[in-house]
Specification:
Blueprint (H helix, E strand, L loop, with lengths): L3 H21 L4 H6 L1 H16 L6 H8 L5 H10 L8 H16 L1
């Protein structure tokens, strides 16, 4: 069973994605095309949090739950740096590990 904090993170990511989806409607087609990879990854991040239980260390969870942090954007930016456009749960785990290492240093 997932912790309350993890459940709150899932809800936060869902809300952030919904806010992002609304903002897309205001963009012109060219900008949407330019942001296609980012949009795709955000959708995948949201889907992973809806369907999977991802282990997130406490420090990384606290970081992502910070009100000043847009969790879905933070995870998406790390995954955008990956070589492949393909999305895998491993990409999510890599992003979480990178956040954890940032928190430990």
């Amino acid at each position: 069973m997932a912790s309350k904090e993890y459940q709150k993170l899932k809800e936060k990511i869902k809300k952030e994605y919904n806010d992002f989806a609304v903002s897309i409607e205001k963009l012109d087609k060219r900008t949407i095309i330019e942001k296609a990879k980012e949009i795709y990854i955000m959708q995948e991040v949201k889907m992973v949090f809806e369907t999977e239980n991802i282990f997130i260390p406490k420090e990384a969870l606290s970081f992502l739950m910070n009100d000043d942090i847009n969790a879905i954007k933070e995870l998406t930016e790390i995954i955008l740096d990956a070589e492949s456009v393909e999305f895998y749960c491993e990409n999510m785990e890599m992003a979480i590990e990178e956040i954890q290492m940032k928190m430990e240093s």
